[in-house]
Write a structure and sequence with these properties.
The complex is a heterodimer of chains A (about 325) and B (about 280). Chain A has a two-stranded antiparallel sheet. Chain A is built from 16 helices and two strands. In chain A, strand 1 and strand 2 form a beta hairpin. In chain A, helix 3 packs across helix 16, helix 9 crosses helix 14 and helix 10 packs antiparallel against helix 13. Chain A is mainly alpha-helical. Chain A has two domains: about 60 residues, no CATH class; about 240 residues, MetI-like (MetI-like fold, Orthogonal Bundle). Chain B contains 15 helices and no strands. In chain B, helix 6 crosses helix 12, helix 6 packs across helix 14 and helix 10 packs antiparallel against helix 13. The two termini of chain B are about 15 Å apart. The chains are: A mainly alpha (about 325), B mainly alpha (about 280). At the A-B interface, helix 2, helix 3, helix 5, helix 6 and helix 10 of A face helix 2, helix 3, helix 6, helix 7 and helix 8 of B.
Amino acid sequence: MAGALKRSAQIQRGPIRRRLTDLWRRVKANKANYLLLAPFATIFFVFTVLPVIMSILLSFTHYNMLQPPRWIGWGNYIRLFLADDVFLIAVKNTFVFAAITGPLSYFACLFFAWMINELRPKLRAFLTLLFYAPSISGNLFLIWTIIFSGDSYGLVNGFLMRFGIITEPIQWFQDPRYMMAVIILVVLWLSLGTSFLVFIAGLQSIDKSLYEAGAIDGIKNRWQELWFITLPSMKPQLMFGAVISITQSFTVAGHTIALAGFPSTDYAAHTVVTHLIDYGSVRFEMGYASAIATVLFVTMIITQRAIQYLLRKMG
Amino acid sequence: MSLRLRDRRLNRSAGGDVLIFTVLAICAAFMSLPLVYAICNAFKPLNELFLFPPQFFVRNPTLDNFRDLFVLMGQSWVPFSRYISNTLLITGLGTAGHVMIASMGAYSVSKHEFPGSRLFSEMVVLSLMFAYQVTAVPNYIIMSRLGWINTHFSMIIPAWGMSLGFFLMSRFMVQVPDELLEAARIDGAGEFRIWWSVVMPMVRPAWLTLIILSFQSLWGDTGGRFIYKEALKTLPYALSQIAAGGIARAGVGAAAGLIMIIIPVVVFVYNQSNIIETMSTSGLD
């Protein structure tokens, strides 16, 4: 009775006031949830959100890390789009790179995770390790420099020359014509990482009774099973994989630097993040580097939103 | 019917099994190259390491590289066990704390609607997309304001709040059926209790995977950004210093590289076989 009276009093107090009290009531009702979230949220805000906000603010300044930042408004962004032709090369390369490695690595992760899941349990753990090996062995992807070595002793050059396909060795990591293709190959080879493990875990989390039910409902083979049961059951993991693919394919830099050098010949393997590293850690123009990071951030958000929308549309 | 289900896996043709196995075996041979190369290199004598053209496999395996490495370890200015214990402390505390804190938070936002819950999960996803290279300076400023430069806090605490683990755990927790949580609530369990004894056992594959990922990144962390005191430095740092001694140290470097890989591989194999065990005990085969 008292509650009802209180409630009617609240309604009379006007919509904003009422909404606020309503919000407060919901906050209080979820006290336990806020407590569970608090430790993570605190650390996340201090070490992730705060630095990101500071970087975005820095992108509107001139900051050389020695003198205090000086506010220059949109200056960095104007320079980035109108006066920096290397940036445009980097954008083009990054888009080519992301458009190829993003989807391919995503489907490779899914495909291999699913295939491995088809095997008997004992083989599974072992094969997972072999497929994950490139991701666990640090900078050993540098063995690709032996395989694609630019002299005639390089494995690929030697092979092509023996069969008379080429007459002189190709400088795989120096020639702008081949650089991008070889790096894409290496990155794809490295791509069975986080998403791959998450897909494997996702496949293990599917309720096994669904498959029995499916068999009774007339599912005939493993392809139908994959399409009608497995994929719909692991939608959250598929979404996770999409986000990881976007972030990884848009931010490739370390591998191109290690393989093709920094800067690469004719900027043929220059990506947005190598451009950012150039300005951030070589030229100490932190404000400008932050502007590059912010542009990249917005681009990735738009891409992610678009993909999320498409995935929803497909059901 | 039920007997047949137990005997054979559903909807599986023998031909398909053979095909899948063959494709996987060929690809696996290709993918395992770096691991094989790392093992071979660690056992190569110095003259084989510098052979030109380079050789992939080892011809005369030797343990010299490991012997030299242990001699060098014994000579370090800070006792070598110190580097090992630093790395074990950082990796152990960092991984355990991250899995706990991230999955606690992930449970609260993925299984409840409350003011700010949606916004928070969105922010975590977005934070994955910001290039970390430019946040290095702000991060340093925050660390120094906190007075955490030259402490292990600077490596452990940020690891607890990594977005990736939170995102991963919340994606798996979305799938836990609400009826189970409701049943536990009726039985009088509090939210913390439900998280720990109902939700966590159900998403076991998720946190076993997260342990692998977190362990691997912390284990390889040299701590170069925030730690400058020698006695606080980590194993990868110490080993890279030993390996950086020029051409004569190439063999030692290869041995050190193998040692750095072995521990994550052991954690990986242990966790992966546990993930799979979850299935074989509850599944059909």
